[in-house]
Each structure stands twice: as C-alpha cells, then as structure tokens.
Design brief:
CATH topology of one domain: UDP-N-acetylmuramoyl-L-alanine:D-glutamate ligase
Enzyme class: ligase
EC number: 6.3.2.29, 6.3.2.30
Largest sheet: 11 strands, mixed
Keywords: ATP-binding, Ligase, Nucleotide-binding
Structural class: alpha/beta
CATH architecture of one domain: 3-Layer(aba) Sandwich
Strand order of the largest sheet: 25-24-23-26-22-27-28-29-30-31-32
Strand content: 15-25%
Radius of gyration: 35 Å
Protein name: Cyanophycin synthetase
CATH superfamily of one domain: Mur-like, catalytic domain
Number of strands: 39
Number of helices: 31
CATH class of one domain: Alpha Beta
GO molecular function: ATP binding; cyanophycin synthetase activity (L-arginine-adding); cyanophycin synthetase activity (L-aspartate-adding); metal ion binding; tetrahydrofolylpolyglutamate synthase activity
Shape: elongated
Length: 887
C-alpha cells in the first residue's frame, strides 16, 4: 500500500464544509483483502492505538470501527481511522473521515478533515498518512511499529503549522460573528471580511494599529517619556551603554533597580530587585546580549498586573506570578518541574495557554540565592519560585482580576493607551492592590511597560479565575456590532452560459452604481479593468476578488475543476445561480456521468447563506430538483426559478405557492411573485440576443435578472442593463458577430453538444441556412464526448473546417482532428470536411466555402488569437445581426 498523491481542498467541498485533504491510496497487494483475512490484526492494532475503540465509524456510536473490522473491512478504510487517531494523539483534533473508491481496483481516496486555520498544504497531514500506512503494513508483517519518535516530530511540525493562541482565538471569535476568516500563508496573519469590509489582524495587532504607537511601545525609554509628559506614574530610569554606567544609576536611584534590554520582549533577560553592584553588572551583561542599550530603572514594589485595553475600554486584567512549583513532600524540584510540564496546557513558546518551565541558568541562580537546587525536596504545600520576574513567556501564571479593577485604575490605563496611541495594548503595572483607588500622588503605582500586540492567552485561559473572551472584544472593535463584514456575493455555475451570466450580473450591478469584482474563465476584473488574465474560475481567483478592498459586490464564476480540486473560494454566497447541467468534462477528474456533474455543481446551492437566494433553471429537470435537496432546504433560501415560458410546470407550481419566477410571455421578460407579474423589457431588446432569437441568451438574461433583483437592483435598472449589455464590449467571444466582406461570422466558445446545438439553431433562425463551421474542441474531454460534440456540429453544418489549437491539453498532434472527423462523418457521411493547420488557415478555408451571405461559425480555444486575426482581416462588428440575411 502506498500514497500516490495528496491534494488539499481549502474551502467548502463535496464532502464537508471544512477544509480536507484527499489522499489517493493504492492498496497494491492488499487489493481485495479485508481485515478478516489477517488473523489477529485488529487485536494487535487496538492496543497500539487504544483510542480506536472509541471511533464511531458508520455505526454512529463508539465501537463502530471495531465491529467493522470484526466483520471485515478494507485497508483504505483502516488507514483513514489510523490517521485520525494519530492526529488526535498530537493534539490535532479533527473528526471527519471518509474513504471512497477511486475508479480502479485497489484505488481509494481517503478524505480527512483538516483544522480550519492550519497552514495551507503543510507536511503534517501527509506525514500522518504515511505514518498510518507504515503502521498498518508493519502490523500486517508481524512487526510492532515505533510511534513515539515519528509522532513527536510530527507534533513539533504541527506546533509550527498551527495558529498561535491569540490569533486562533481571534479567528474563532470572528467566525462566531459570521465574519469570513482566511489565514494568509504560513503566517499568523488573518484576513477578515470581504471586499470593502476586509480587515487584517496579526495576533493582537490590527490593520489600524498605529505604527508610531508600536515604535514608541518598543522603545521602553520613549514610552516612559510619553507617559511622564502625560502625568502618568512611571519609575525613574536611565538608558546606559556600559556596566559602569549601570552601577552609577543604581547609586543615583539609591534602592533596588530593574535591569532590562531597552527593546526586549517576553521578559527576556530582565533582572529585578537588584541592590548589589555585582548583580547589576551581571544583569547588564545579560541584557546587553539582547540589545546594546540597556534600561536601568527603579524597582516598584507590589504585585505584577497586566491590563488589556481595546479601543478606549479596559476589557481584562490579570495578576501575574513568577514560574513556580508546589511541593508534595516527596518529589524533587526537578521532578516537580517535569510533572508541571506534563500538563498539556504547557507548551513551547506561545503555542499553548502556558509555557513550559525550565531549569536554566537564571532559574538555577535564583534557586541558589535561596540555598536551593533542583535535587531539593520541598515540603508538602511549599511554593518554590523559579524566577523573580512574573512573565508567562518564562513559565509564569496568571489570575484573572478583571472584576476587581478599581475605576481609578481603569481611567489611568485608558490614559496610558491614549498617550502611546495604540488601539490594542497590554499595560504592565506594579501596585499593591488593583482594587484600591489611586492615591492623589499615584504613590506606590508604576506603569512598567506598554505592549503593542499583547499576548491574549493570560486572559483567555488564566491559571486561576474566569476566562475573558478578549478576542471577541478586539473583533467588536474592528467590526462594531451591527456592521457588515461582507459584500453581496453571487456565484454562478453550470455547464453552458456561466461566463455570460457572470458578466451580465456584474454589468447589472455596475449599472446600479456598485464597484464589482468579477472572475471568469477569461480573468479577474475590477469593474472594466482586467487585473489578472487567466482561467480565473477557481477558488484562488475568488479569493483575489474578495480580498480586494475596492470591491462592493462580487460575482464569481465557479467551475467544476476548482470545486473538485480545491473546493470553493468562499464560505457563503448571497445568490447562487445554476444555469444548466449537461454532458461536458466527462472523463476528467474521475467524472464519468452527468450525475457526477450534478453532485459537483450542486455545491454552490448547498453552500448558500441562510435565507439567501438560489436561482435555478426550471427548464432543466436536474437543476430544478436541486431546490428539494435536504442540504439546500436546510438553508431556507428563496428559490427563484427561470424558464423560457411561464407554462413550465415547475414555474406554475412554484407561483401557486407564492414563489418568485422569471420567464418570457408575449414577447416580454417577466418577473412574477405569486399572482403578481411585472414586465421587465421586450425580449428583442436584450442585447446580444439577436433580436430575441438566441434562446440561450434569453435564459442567461432571465438568470441575471433574478440575481440582480435578489440583491435589490430596481426593475428599471435591470431593464436598462440588459439593453446595454453589448456583447463586443461586455461579453467578448460569446455570441459575437462580425462581417468579413459578404460573410457574417459568429464567434463562440461552444464546446459541448448542447452548446453547439444552441448556436447552430440560432444561425439557422437568423440567416435561414446551415452555413459553414470552423471547429476546434478542447482535448481534455473523453473521446466519446468529443465525438458527440462533432456529431452535433454535423447536424447543424454541411461544411466544416477542422483545426487543432496549439494547446492540445495532453493529446497527440492529429488525434483531435481524427476524432472530430469520425464524429462528423458518423451522422452525416456527405459532410464536406477540410482540415487546416492552424486558426488562420481554418478561417481562410471557411471563408472560401461560404457563399455570399452565408454565416460562418468560428469555435475557438483561446480568444486573443481570434481577436487578432479578425482585426487583421478587417472584420467589422455587427451590432444587430437579427436584421441580417434572408431568414
């Protein structure tokens, strides 16, 4: 058994709304074998991984996996559960898994949930799967695999890959508010919200945090000056550059002092309550290893406190205690440290609520000063401090005292935050009692430091006292209650008409005065500006649009490939449109039938926001039925059907239930809600519809009108937008008509049987004759689909020029030409066929085959070469082709 490949689906996907990894497993010699074929396998596996006994599996209750193995189950399924259990053992709590057949004997896809904010495409999940495979195969070979060392290495990698405590809390708080959250790469940087409401936060530093305030907070002496000028209590102190100067300051202050790096952090190399010159010299040298400039200041007696200010509010306060252990009368100090570090709440750095205790030089010196060493056994209940300074980063603990903060202290801390100029700051205070009023002279109180981007863990998970949801306070500061974090979002999927419908919806919203971000198979746009040229119908392009702060509304083409390979690029849409579902992309990404396409494209309707709008084609039974899916109905969306006629049975039934629908009647586009109707505009006025003869364009217009109306665009503006949707300007390459001398030329991207049939029918209706076709088809479809599309070409055209695009999409040269010709002659043996070497030759041949006034249909793969060629040939745009020809 081996791992063939792995892919990540970062957004909602076909399996679950959360991120997953999909591992392709090849079982090799285990193909067709089950757990019951290997006596004693389960009995060896479960003692190694006892947690497997609690796995529910399909039974829905603990023990389900054990019963499945006892009955006999395949080893892809076993590997899924072993991976989940190994994940749990490193603290990576995920629960969803599924194993599905992947189209060949012994080939399975194992789908495994990933933490929402795990760094994208980290090696952790792959390492876990490979360890699971090794565990299963070694047990089958009669060996006991060693798990401790590899699990420890994976755990360390996971600690690096996941968000820090503060950032993770902010992400969770944002999601509780319904705010979209996206982690940016491997950083602790979060993007919150969409479009013009997008904000950024990095731990407790927001995109509104003052850079000047951060610089001031980082320079402890500058902080002291700012606070002193504001009349706030700070200990006296001086910056020194030598040990001799440090000793001089000790003498000048005349009492205990604190020595610390001027720009240090996390309590690193801070020495407190020093009275002996030799101690000061040693402390200076330690501090100078962090920063050349060292601050020596008066020691303020009292207790250490951290007060968190968000905006102009004190939201939490904690009393801090130095790292310490409590004796039990039996264990040594070193053993007590090991016992404390076994607490899963303690970790390295800042990845857990508490930091591991250490017995380094500082701790050993502190113990020695009290005539103690790591081998001493403290009495039962005796508290032994390991350091003087109280800091969580050095193993200290916190006690919540928020409810005890005196109003005087609250006012003092608000003044501190204002003086430094930070929207979120942690203020370090020393004072006897945080619940007591501030004396008139502020005696006994000292503001020790002001921290930009303060750690939140001491408030989120204090060692003692109540936890405080300070992350929610920061999110509320960024997005005050009642404010929006999203922009209106429309997503469009289907087989044909996606790009046109996206462009049309964007045009309608733009006419309504909104700055629209749009992604299509042609690229990413902001209004009329092309920002990124590519096939931009996947999640990366969606995120590009939603991350643009100029965007006021987003319209996203959501294609099959992006859904299958990466998931959706958003979490909830306001409006989801499904245009139609028919044969296309069969043979790609394990898609073998139209039913497979339905399952994929249904995701956009299933992931609609609660109470959103789902726009469905009532003329397509597969699409119309999506409204009845439990996963769609659970969202309680407004269903807006569209159809070519109001006599459609789905439409009639829907209107009887006071639903909303869009259809054509008596030559008009009509909006109906129950018994009320509103004529929007004449069909013939829809731009690009060839005077109303292009049925597919009318269907696109109905879908676009439904979406625009769902987002509040006035009916009059919808009518105006549909009239002004000039295909050459707004929809290049889709149903665009030109004239080259006496020959009308229609350029379209039809690339499947249904699309070719629709365009072929249109040309007959407009020009009254078959005309000529110059054809190329995408090579990444299966042979049967290519030939079916070619057959449809032959049904519509008696003269065809076949050419191959430069991008063969994995095909050999000449292969597509052969398949297309076979399809053409299969249904029309007398069809006249020419083969061309390239696009230019194909158009030239087609023009010679066409009689004056006969239409030419040009199908293409890439639009730019077509545009360049038409310009070279002097093609003139036709804006009203419905009046052309003899038909």
């Amino acid at each position: 058994m081996h791992l063939d490949h792995l892919r990540w689906l970062g957004g909602p996907n076909l399996y679950v709304s959360r991120p997953v990894a999909v591992a392709r497993l090849e079982l090799e010699e285990l193909t067709g074998r089950e757990t019951t074929d290997f006596a004693g396998f389960a009995e060896r596996l479960v003692p190694l991984l006892p947690g497997l006994a609690q796995h529910h599996c399909s039974a829905g209750r603990p023990g389900g996996l054990l019963r499945a193995m006892a009955r006999g189950t395949y080893f892809g399924h076993v590997t899924e559960h072993v991976t989940l259990e190994l994940s749990s053992m490193i603290g990576r709590e995920v629960f969803f898994g599924r194993t599905v057949w992947a189209g060949a004997p012994g080939r399975y896809d194992v789908i495994l949930e990933c933490p929402r904010d795990e760094a994208p495409e980290t090696s952790v999940v792959e390492d876990l799967i490979r360890l699971a495979i090794r565990t299963v195969t070694e047990l089958l070979a009669g060996r006991t695999p060693g798990l401790t060392a590899p699990l420890s290495a994976i755990a360390n990698a996971y600690g690096q890959a996941r968000l820090g405590v503060s950032t993770a809390a902010l992400a969770e708080a944002a999601r509780r508010r319904g705010i979209p959250v996206r982690r940016m790469g491997h950083l602790n940087l979060l993007q919150l919200g969409h479009g013009r409401h997008r904000r950024m936060v990095w731990a407790a530093m927001t995109d509104r945090t003052s850079a000047v305030g951060m610089e001031a907070a980082a320079d402890k002496m500058l902080t002291k000056c700012l606070l002193e000028e504001a009349g706030l209590p700070v200990p006296s102190g001086y910056v020194v550059a030598s040990a001799d100067d440090a000793v001089s300051v000790l003498h000048d202050i005349g009492g205990p002092v604190v020595v610390k790096p001027l720009s240090g952090h996390h309590g690193e190399k801070v020495s407190i309550e020093l009275t002996d010159p030799a101690e000061v010299v040693t402390a200076f040298r330690e501090a100078a290893t962090v920063c050349e400039e060292v601050l020596v200041e008066a020691y303020v007696p009292g207790r250490d406190h951290r007060v968190l200010v968000v905006g102009d509010r004190v939201v939490a306060a904690a009393e801090l205690s130095p790292a310490r252990v409590t004796g039990d009368g039996r264990s040594t100090i070193a053993e007590l440290v090991a016992i404390a570090n076994a607490d899963p709440a303690r970790g390295e750095g800042h990845d857990r609520p508490l930091t591991r205790l250490t017995l380094g030089d500082t701790e050993l010196a502190h113990l020695a000063a009290r005539d103690l060493h790591p081998g001493c056994v403290p009495a039962d209940g005796e508290v032994v401090s390991l350091r003087r300074n109280a800091n969580l980063s050095t193993g200290g603990t916190s006690k919540d005292v928020t409810d005890r903060v005196h109003p005087d202290i609250t006012r003092l801390c608000r003044r501190v935050a204002s003086a430094v100029g930070l929207d979120v700051c942690g203020i370090d205070l020393r004072l006897p009692d945080i619940g007591a009023p501030v004396p008139p002279d502020a005696g006994g109180i000292g503001v020790i430091e002001v921290n930009a981007s303060p750690g939140l863990r001491m408030h989120l998970a204090p060692y003692e006292g109540s936890s405080r949801d300070v992350a929610a306070d920061i999110i509320d500061q960024m997005y005050p209650p009642g404010s929006s974090a999203r922009v209106p979002l429309v997503t469009v999927t289907g087989t044909n008409g996606k790009t046109t419908t996206v462009r049309m919806v964007a045009h309608l919203l733009g006419q309504d005065g909104r700055t629209v971000g749009m992604c299509t198979t042609e690229g990413v746009y902001l209004g009329a500006d092309l920002l990124y040229k590519a096939d931009a119908s996947g999640p990366r392009s969606a995120q590009m649009v939603l991350g643009n702060r100029a965007v006021e509304a987003a319209v996203l083409e959501t294609a099959r490939g992006g859904i299958v390979r990466r998931g959706l690029g958003y979490d909830r849409a306001d409006v989801a449109i499904v245009t139609n579902i028919t044969d296309d992309h069969l043979g790609v990404d394990d898609i073998t039938s139209v039913d497979d396409l339905v399952e994929i494209k249904a995701l956009v309707a299933e992931e609609i926001k609660s109470g959103g709008h789902v726009v469905l084609n009532a003329d397509d039974p597969r699409v119309a039925e999506l409204a009845d899916r439990p996963s769609v109905r659970r969202r309680k969306p407004v269903i807006r059907y569209f159809a070519r006629s109001g006599t459609n049975r789905v439409i009639e039934r829907h209107l009887r239930m006071d639903g909303v629908a869009y259809y054509t009647e008596d030559g008009w586009l009509v909006e109906a809600a129950g018994r009320r109707t509103n004529a929007l505009l004449p069909i013939a006025d829809v731009a690009g519809s060839f005077g109303g003869k292009a049925d597919y364009m009318i269907a696109n217009a109905l879908a676009a009108a439904a979406a625009a109306r769902a987002l509040g665009v006035p009916a009059s503006m919808v009518a105006f937008g549909l009239r002004t949707f000039d295909p050459h300007r707004c929809n290049p390459g889709r149903g665009c008509s030109f004239r080259i001398e006496e020959t009308p030329v229609v350029v379209d991207y039809a690339h499947n049987p249904a699309a070719v049939a629709a365009v072929g029918s249109l040309l007959r209706r407009v020009w009254g004759r078959d005309g000529v076709a110059a054809v190329t088809l995408p090579g990444d479809r299966c042979d049967d689909l290519v030939m079916d599309t070619a057959r449809e070409v032959a049904r519509c055209f008696d003269r065809v020029v076949v050419y191959e695009d430069e991008d063969l999409r994995g095909r050999r040269s000449g292969e597509m030409t052969r398949l297309i010709i076979e399809g053409l002659t299969d249904v029309r043996p007398d069809v006249r066929i020419r083969t061309a070497g390239d696009l230019k030759d194909a158009v030239g041949m087609a023009l010679t085959l066409a009689a004056p006034g006969e239409p030419l249909l040009l199908l293409y793969e890439k639009l730019q070469p077509v545009a360049d060629l038409l310009q070279t040939l002097g093609a003139a745009r036709l804006c009203s082709p419905a009046t052309e020809g003899s038909g």
